[in-house]
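ok so for the tutorial part 2 we go from a plain amino acid sequence to predicted structure tokens. step 1 is just haveing the sequence, like this:
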Amino acid sequence: MALSAALLLGGIASAQKVDFEEYTLDNGLHVILHNDSSAPVVVTSVMYHVGAKDENPERTGFAHFFEHLLFEGTENIKRGEWFKIVSSNGGVNNANTSDDRTYYYEVFPSNNLELGLWMESERMLHPVINQIGVDTQNEVVKEEKRMRMDNQPYGNFLTAVKENMFKNHPYRWMPIGSMAHLDAATLEEFQAFNKKFYTPNNAVLVVAGQIDIAQTKEWVQKYFGAIKRGEELKKQTFVEEPITQTIKATYQDPNIQIPAIVTSYRTPSMKTRDARVLDLISSYLSGGKSSKLYKKIVDEKKMALEIGAFGFNQEDYGMYIIYGLPMGNFTLADLQKEIDEEVVKIQTELISEKDYQKLQNTFENRFVNANSNLEGIAENLATYHLLYGDINLINNEIELYHSITREEIREVAKKYLNPNQRLILDYVPSTEKAQN
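step 2 — the prediction. this is what the tokens look like for a chain of 436 residues:
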């Protein structure tokens, strides 16, 4: 049944407008309902406005830790039973954490909607946070860090970039945090973190799929309405001074043999127009094998095994990161020179009409695909409400991309992608053993 639900979920595709209804309970929980009767599937999800940036600098990793910890059980769901309940009822579930938010969701056959709502209300209302759960998940997180980062080639790539790009903002550490910080934390500190952030007024509930709106509202009120409002959170603002001189750094990775050159520029909040212009620039320079950087450096000059770039968009600040792995006798400096030449071109010349149209087609396709299944729609509804403050972007954000001109692309490149505004990181092999 779980496989059938997953297949149905993946098969739902539509480029049509996403209709939704939203309202707020008395306790502050924002609720978004989206009815889609094309398949007997439903997604129940909760996004909490808490991520790595909300942590104490001496207790990093808490938000990601809670991604795991809040599956341990509740007063009415025994320890170890969460996943059994979901799978035995034909469902699948998961969670993920970023610097800005934490997201939990279940996908069930639509006749188990009430079960999904009850389980998420249990997680919010009275999770069991005890020493057994903390100790168990501590080992799970440590193993995750070993596998995904410490023992993985280029696994600390983003770690090295973030710690050099941010000096004041909590974005300077990774969501997985410090294992030493988690080891030092007391049970009371974990319980206090839960009480502070995992509250109805710091969350949004999304129900998407084949639902009866009236019945769903009754169940939402039944299971979430009585949960007490949490403390009113005042989000701290962190300001980074502009980068005015090139930051040069080196990171040694014992798991690699081929060095990498990394260039990173700090960019504005993902909510800004400039961030969306930078998305177009990223796609133009390195969006696949037909992009300018790949065609020039990998295909034509055969200077690199890999070249790429991506925008790391976040609520407060972002990063635009370009990276390359040299081939043969070519050096990191050789790659940097070629990359810089292409950046200068986009700063001084208008991209061609053909390339501009290709970009628009690419982003139109991405926009449609982002809302092509229920799981994507549910997460997008939560994200646009909680992080962007404009849920209607789920239907009209593509219009913002379409309104960006070639001249804007050139001007934004001039504004953010200058040599004195960046980090140049040599990510190189090390003979030292990786630390577990």
